[in-house]
Amino acid sequence: MSNSKNLIDTEQRLGAHNYKPLDVVLTRGEGVYVWDTDGKRYLDCLSAYSAVNQGHCHPKILAAMVEQAGKLTLTSRAFRNDQLAHLYEELAALTGSHKILPMNSGAEAVETAIKAVRKWGYEVKGVPEGKAEIIVCADNFHGRTLSIVSFSTDPDARTGFGPYTPGFRTVPFGDADAFTAAINENTVGALIEPIQGEAGVIIPQPGYFKRVRELCTENKVTLILDEIQTGLGRTGKLLAEEHEGIEADVTLIGKALSGGFYPVSAVLSNSEVLGVLKPGQHGSTFGGNPLACAVARAALRVLTEEGMIENAAVMGDYFLEGLRSIRSNIVKDVRGRGLMMAVELVPEAGGARQYCYTLKDRGLLAKDTHENTIRLAPPLVITKSQVDWAVEQIEKTLA
Ligand SMILES: Cc1ncc(COP(=O)(O)O)c(C=O)c1O
Question: How far is the CA of 121 from the centre of ligand 1 (A)?
Answer without folding.
Answer: 25
